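Reply to dn_fold:

You asked what the input looked like. This is it:
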Amino acid sequence: MAETMLAVLKESGAPGVVVKKIPVPQTPKGEVKVKVIYASICGTDVGIYDWTPWIAAKLKPPIVIGHEVVGEILEINGEAPHLKKGDLVSSETHIFDNTCYQCRINNRHICENVQFFGYGRNGGFSEYATIPIHTTWKNDSRISKEAMSVQEPLGNSVNVITKAGVAGKKILIMGLGPTGLCAGMVAKVYGASEVVGLNRSEYRRNLAEKIGFDRTVQAVDEKEFGTFDVVCEMTGNVDTIPVALDAVRIAGKIIAFGTPKKPAQFNWGTLIDKEITIESIFGRRIWETWYQTSDLLITGKVDLTKIITHRFKLSEFEEAMKVMKSGECGKIILTP
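and this is what came back:
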């Protein structure tokens, strides 16, 4: 094994990243070392690149970024009876302590002392990475390797749609980035009667229709206000929150997933008048959601390759980020 590796490094508290050679990490006690095969870019990585306030409050440079990854285990330093060298694994982003109140009541994804793989500690945009044994997910070999690197965000969408309870309902997916696209695919599998996608980008709307959305719109027509049983807010755009409140029917449900970059303002009275239920999602339930996600991929009910639109070498990260920020893409895969 080489002594150095290529990595994408958030080197300072300012916009941008550095792609450079750094030492290959040792394998800490209680962790595995993997040779990264694929990694994929997330909207959070865009926030890290741009150094948004939400990220600045959580990330302390220097750090190797990237949290959506699949790699082959090279070393195991600790007890891991479910793992062996050569296994293809991914990382649960939320590194839980397994001791706090939330962990003890099986809410490990919202651990009170959570760390974050790829922005609370070194992540996977590199040739080699280390992952805590207790947050290492062993992938099923029947799943394609590219899909393995994208199943973490698919898991977000599985959790969104599971909590939404979409069977037989008319659903509005607000935001057709990768998690929104995944949410639409999962909603169809889980029995939604109609899945409508909302996005300003024609590219994203066309992609959504290709992968199975019933229809897409650039804006919600006022004639459809109050007709959606469930609205999944996946954008994090504060301007769409009032639209979600208008679109959802009386006694309907809004699922909040996208993280706004600034405080949102909306009419609180609308919640009262319409008796709306609002629930939020922060990642995946560990490990329940991972099993659901794996089943969707193994059975072919969801095909993640349909939303993978671009592939770049890790060394081409800056070019990949330009495409990502343009919105003219689905999921972007990186190869070390």
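The mean pLDDT is 96.
Hope that clears it up.
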